[in-house]
Amino acid sequence: MRQPPAWAGLCALALLLPTWGSDVPHSMVTIWATNFGNILSEICKQNTSRDSIYNAYETSASITTVDGMQVVKRMALDMMEMMGAKKDAVTMIVDMAETAAMSHIDEPEPHVDYFNAKKLNEYETIRNNITLKQGYREFKLGNSSKHFSGIPVNMTHSTVHVPTNVYDKSSDVLNTIKWSEKLDRVFVSNFKNDPSMSWQYFGSSTGIMRQYPGVKWIVDPEDPDLYDCRMREWYIRAASSPKDVIVLLDLSGSMTGLRVEIAKHVVLNILDTLNTNDYVNIYNFSSEVEALYPCFADTLVQANLENIRIFKEALDKVETRELANFATALTQAFKTLKQQRETNESAQCNQAIMLITDGAPEKFEQVFKTYNRPEKPVRVFTYLIGRDVTDREAVEWMACANKGYFTHVTTLAEVREQVQKYVPVLARPWVLYKTDHPVIWTGVYADIADPKLTDWLWEIRERARQYQRSKNYQTIIKNSAGPDEKVGGRTERQCYDEMENFLSFGVRRLNKTERERIEAQRYQDTKLDLRERGLSNKWTLYIGRTGSEATRRGYRLMTSISMPVFDKNSKGNVTEKVFVNNTQWVYRTQEKRVARLLGVAGTDVPLSDIQKHAPPHKLGVNGYSFLVDNNGYVLYHPDLRPVHREATKQFQEILKPNYNTVDLAEVEIVDNDEPRSNDTKLFMLRKDMIDRQKAETSLYVRQHLDDMKRVIKRRQKYYYHPVDSTPFSLGIALPDRYGDERVSGQVELTQAGRNREPILDYLEGPNWSVHPDWVYCEYDNQDTDAHSFDTPEDQYRHFLKKAISTSGFQWRSKRVYPVPEVKEPTGRYRSDETRSGTYFCDRDLFQSVVFDAKVTLSFKQGQSSSKHPLAPIVAQMARMGLFHTFGAAHSFVATRSGFTRWKTHWPRDMDVDREDMKFNGVRATDEVWYKRAVDYHDHDPTAFVYSVPFDAGLRNESLVTGAQALFLRKGSKRTPAAVVGMQFLHSRFREKFLSTANCPALGNCSQTCASDDLDCYLLDDSGFVVVSKRHEETGRFFGDVDGTVMNALLNHNVYRRITMFDYQGVCLDVVSTGSSAWTLLTPLRYLQWFASWLGGKMLWLLVQSNLLHLLDINLAWAAETVVNDNMDHGAGGDGDAMYDYDSKHTCVQVADSHQLFKMAHINKTRPRPCDKHVGLYTLNHNTKPLKASLEHCYGIDSSSCSRQFVLEKVPYTNLMMLVVNTLCPCEGDMISIEAHEWEYENGTQCARERLEPYRRRPQSCQSYHAEEENIDMCGRSGATRLVPLAVGWLALLGAQLVDACSRRDARFSDLALTELLDLVIARSAAAGGGVRVALKLELTGVGEVAAVLPVLCARLPNVSFPVWLAAEWLLLRLPNSTLTVFSGGVDRQPTETVHWPTVVALRRTVGAHRLLFELHAPLYRQLAHALCRYADECDARPRLEGADEAGAPQPAAAHLRLIALLLALGWIAQPGGL
Questions:
Q1: Residue 7: what pLDDT?
Q2: Are 770 and 799 in contact (CB under 8 A)?
Q3: How much is the CA Rg of the chain, to the nearest whole Å?
Q4: What is the pLDDT of residue 866?
Q5: Which residue(s) pair with 586 in the sheet?
Q6: Which burial class, exposed, middle or buried, applies to 648 when counting CB atoms under 10 A from its CB (0-12, 13-18, 19+)?
Q7: In this predicted structure, what is the pLDDT of residue 242?
Q8: What's phi and psi for 1207, nearest 5 deg?
């Protein structure tokens, strides 16, 4: 007999109920909810074969209990073995480096052919011939390597990276490059024996880094390469022991001007050399001593990113004043360090004072005698700021008498190099012990050039937004209506809203939903842009080595292992700079006792490689592992969120300010309503892991899902174990109710093959997947065609066929291969043959997939064994295709092994893009619907858990997902085996719900969900709208739709509010756009940006005839980056606008132009770490059906009324059906689930910042060696009288300069920035030797030259005096002189005359232009007289070309152009500054 349609019973029941007026029918709502839930449940059960799958598991599988402690112990042991292999590999690099350096004999002018990573494979076309660019080399690169993040690499050779601020032609650099070539064979051997090796490298103290495999270093031609290996954490940690540092910054009046900017730059660079094992504080001193950040007074704080950021922001606000009180400042520093020693706080290793000043009046020996004698526990490093300084002797003595180093910093360009000099001094005890090579493991960090550049990326995004708003502002002004035109009857508020819409989006009239839709689309465009375009190919500069697809998809988090490389020579030739007669520098070479740090060797270990040793399938659904270091910081954790995803949508995917110092207590959120509550069990867990204990515990925690939109409470068991030979400790967390049990079921492939079981048939067809991130089987070398697969499924099939067809198939579950040992004494290494066919397979996981595929065959075949009374009806509906009326799109089953099957059921008349609606839930146990279904099982094991995307209301179509967990039960044991579910097209699902809540066959149902009198909703267990009559409300939190009713539901205990804390939050502080220190660093660059903006915008600004527009500098800030009208702003700007503003509809006349101009500007912001809190909601599962009313509401006629609503649970779901009367609206505040900053009280905030959580100090510490006193290398200058006073430094320079310029091989007449400049400088016989040395300086761009010249003059031992510094000295004493700039050859007429103080800015504008410089005639005569005075007193008497009318010899133009060019490219201060 044919069954009647399902809705017939529903409408028949409706006949028994009377109609109503404004009353909400509770009984009818109950029927609607019951019928909808029953039919929906049966459709899901039938189409997912739920019962058949469960029966198959119950018949074939068993349950085993796992010992959490044994699980974590095994994982920790695997990690230790893997990390031990990396340690052995780095040890080999260190041994070879020390051996190669010891056997190498330095050459004064070494000839080295090497692969400069920044000068590879770039070509140019000359006369139709394609040739390599000058200075570039051809370097063979393979295809994109999967193992190396999709980067083309050379597996035979390494490449060398030379920082911009390092001169790559200096003898020190070339000699290091030459001897380090021998490292290539070790690199190759390491990789052959351990194919899991990542990048291997050696970073030299000279700044160069040799990296394997060889790779082309991608840089943006518009921006300098800022990478310097010596500033990376792996180098900094290995180069010296932990340290306590106090920085004393002189802010007396004499530091005013450029000096204070140089001093601040020194402080910034010192901070950049610190790491989380160091402690620091900064004191300013003039007449009084003050802590730079008052909250940190009288203590030291850990040098983590958050504290460093605080110091840097406070440094921007310092001002000079009064006189310097050195005695008080030094006393304060010594007392603070002494307190740290006595209280056993901070680093407890090295201690240092960094004094930054422009001179000290005396040595203050009594202070040092009182606090630093006789042991000298505190080293003193001094930085003398400025050129024309006289009080240098006392500053030198402070450093040299206290085991420190004296440095004279004269320019901003040399700051980084000069600051670096303290690092080798701290390394001396380690070097002197020689045999003790500490093994350093860094914390987590992103593979980018410099984490600080995330601020830059943030600013770029804001500029793009400001640029777009400015363009929209122009459109408004250009099409503005006249003052007498009407505004169409709109209110002033409406007009302001329209203007704001147009400024932001380029569209005039938008409602809230439309604005949200545009913002959501831009968020998607931002993520797509980051993945596909790599931030217009700029991100690659900051990501690291090249533009790999992996790095463009996101930041690659890693740790590194590194070891210092020592110079085994105890003595060496040392060239020192000697200050002669207090007037000039000369160089002197002699043999001395040395203890040199050659550099640091290391290798990267991606965290993804570490996590492979804690496979998720062994932890089960909702279980996870995490790794903690000695500071309590997590290296990886499922709640570690290193990038912005909760902030403004335009700023997604940028690293957070403190991404690598997230504490364990900040990701394990205990069940407590107070922020940062002092939970005893949590902090005991943290302390035990830091102390490397083995134990277990349990905690009640709160966890969030879906980007902090949902929250669950759970009791978890924690097991933890140390990873031996590392500073790390591994922990795992398992859910209390089911985390200790596992489904045990495998198909033994060897036996199945013998039994001829049709294994391959289980995986027939396309609609199945394995977890894309899990390792089932993989080859060690995945870069060959034979081992490369398009999909994880192809790779799985390959190994499955191999396992079935190979007799005695070896699973090879061992990942790490032993590293060969060193053969003494030759230092050569055994190189095993390439392991090209080796692979790894997780046998249990691999065979579990086959088992799950076999068990779920009933799903594939569409079998069902449901006994529900509605089962026949649903079966008939399925046969008739009627279940398509629910919009059924997909059915699926996902299992504990990561295996997923699905089927697609497209409605016949579906007109949506199937590609957009395809099934993509292939991550199985990691899918949110899988996790939620398992957690919801305890509340209702029969329920399907439904959800929609949060932005579903902003899309034309989306999918409703319903999932139910299948728990296997054996006696008292139970554990999740799989999750089944369905996905429905939301539009059809919504239509079916509304039609079910109706009586379509009868005419007496006056109030239904189709009528205007009622609003009907389906709310999920977190309070989100799954279905609403208004599509735009779908996916939104109900409190944001109707806060009044939501508040009533809370009062009736239907939902409960749970406060969730986010200790990784980011808040935005508004930053003033006024002048700041960076404008002093590059004044002409700033003027150039301003001029560029002014020229581009002047025309439309003048149209307004309003000078106010010209007075505001904010638009210039928006244009600091070169932007054109065709620029794509999808990566964070306000997007491509649809300009619809016209004069007929403009509202400009409503607001004055000043207000509109202010509206066109956004506030410039800076991200800051902060604590946030948010109220999230969860359903009270004991909720009874509810009918209630809201009093004191007002109806259509403004009369008082009661607003009724009815709530009924939809059976077999997590949904609540809510029906609300619309005839009596109530206005009330909306309830938001946006996170807000937690406001601490003033004292509480400071206490939190000063709080020093428990940590364990690194075991390696060497701060003292008795022989260090024999090393006399502290940067001091001599005081010898090498030549008579009558000669003087200027005369000595003159002879050298004229001799150099008069040589025929120095052709300065054709001098240009892109040509080769040969400098031949004769050393004075009095300076020790009279040796001539040729230095070749390749000038490729002003960015490099500006950094190279100061380094050249300050560091090269064979240059007897900085030529450019002497030339500048001359101009300093000739303030009325001018500099004439020529734009072409020598014979061109002068085009511009520039007063010399502006030369400091001139170097920034040279760029790639071929500019020549000539000095003005008045300077010729004065310089010539200076040179000739020396010539008259000397035997050398070089002849000068030409003479002026007065008979004074005239120097050749080429000579003067040389001086002027070097002058322009140097750092020059005004006479009053230095």
A1: 39
A2: no
A3: 37
A4: 53
A5: 578
A6: middle
A7: 93
A8: -125, 130
CA distances to 1008, 1012, 1191 from 20, in Å: 10, 14, 20
Q: Give the residue among 248, 726, 145 at the shortest CA–CA distance from 441.
A: 726
Amino acid, res. 533: R
pLDDT number for residue 1432 = 34
**Distance in angstroms (rounded) separating the CA atoms of residues 441 and 237:** 8
Beta strands in 410-553 (DSSP E): 440-441, 445-446
Scan for tokens 């997912």, then name that residue: 48
What is the per-residue pLDDT for 6?
A: 41
Q: Using pLDDT thresholds of 50, 70 and 90, give the confidence band for residue 513.
A: low
Give residue for tokens 């040299």: 400
* Confidence category of residue 707, pLDDT binned at 50, 70, 90: confident
| Cα 1189-1037-1063 angle, rounded to 5 deg | 125
**Both structure tokens of 53:** 């799958």
pLDDT at 327 over 90: yes
Give the residue with greater pLDDT, 1276 vs 400. Answer: 400
- Integer Cα distance of 371 and 334 in angstroms: 6
Q: What is the mean pLDDT of residues 1166-1181?
A: 92
Q: CA-based angle 512:514:519, to the nearest 5?
A: 95
Query: Model confidence over 263-295: pLDDT tens digits?
Result: 999 999 999 999 999 999 999 999 999 999 999
Residue type, 866: S
Pairing of strands 624-628, 729-735: antiparallel
> Higher-confidence residue: 1462 or 1188?
1188
Q: Closest by alpha carbon to 391, among 261, 246, 250, 586?
A: 250
Tokens of 962: 């319903």
At 202, is the secondary structure helix, strand, or coil?
A: strand
What average pLDDT does the structure give for the chain? 75
Look up residue 535 and give its two tokens.
Answer: 């931030």
pTM of the model: 0.80
Classify residue 1145 by burial, with Cβ atoms within 10 Å: 0-12, 13-18, 19+: middle
Rounded Cα distance, 394 and 1203, in Å: 84
| pLDDT of the residue at 1390 | 33
- The span from the CA of 1029 to the CA of 987, in Å, is 11
Strands (E), 1305-1387: 1316-1322, 1332-1338, 1378-1382
* Residue 295 backbone class (left: φ over 0; alpha: ψ -120 to 50; beta: rest): alpha
Cβ 902 vs Cβ 767: under 8 Å: yes
pLDDT at site 120: 92
Out of 1003-1012, 1137-1146, 1371-1380, pick the least confident: 1371-1380
**Cα separation of 19 and 61, whole Å?**
55
Sheet holding 1392-1395, edge to edge: 1392-1395, 1378-1382, 1412-1415
Tokens of 476: 């408004």
* pLDDT, average across residues 459-471: 74
- DSSP-assigned letters across all residues of 672-741: -SSTT---HHHHHHHHHHHTT--EEEEEEEEEEETTTTEEEEEEEEEEEEE-TTSS-EEEEEEETTTTTE
Lowest-pLDDT range, 8-22, 88-102, 1156-1170?
8-22
pLDDT for residue 68: 95
User: How many CA atoms lie less than 13 Å away from 79 in the CB half-sphere?
Assistant: 31
Within 105-180, strands assigned E span 123-126, 129-132, 144-145, 151-152, 159-161
The secondary structure of residue 156, as a DSSP letter, is S
Tokens representing residue 44 in the block: 């899901």
Helix (H, G, I), strand (E, B) or coil at 65: strand
Which one, of 1159, 1072, 1447, 1459, lies nearest residue 1297 by Cα? 1459
Alpha helices in 316-372 (DSSP H): 326-342, 365-371
What's the rounded mean pLDDT across residues 996-1023? Answer: 79
Distance in angstroms (rounded) separating the CA atoms of residues 1251 and 832: 52
